[in-house]
Specification:
Helix content: over 70%
Largest sheet: none
Order of helices and strands: H
Oligomer: single chain
Number of strands: 0
Radius of gyration: 28 Å
């Protein structure tokens, strides 16, 4: 039974290692998605800032 027990331990260890690898991969994907969302929010804020500046400049020209 020693060989069978060793095989079970090896399979168990391999399964745990594979599970950790999958979890790490999922975490990396989630991190990348969070990063992309943050970058999109920054770009949106920059675009809103540019639009506000342009609108204010247009109003200033109309006042002159």
């Amino acid at each position: 039974m020693g060989i069978l027990d060793d095989a079970k331990e090896t399979v168990g260890a391999t399964a745990k290692k594979a599970g950790r690898a999958v979890e790490d991969g999922v975490d990396k994907v989630k991190d990348k998605v969070d990063e992309m969302k943050a970058e999109a929010e920054v770009k949106k804020a920059e675009a809103e800032l540019d639009a506000t500046k342009a609108r204010n400049e247009a109003k200033d020209k109309l006042r002159d």
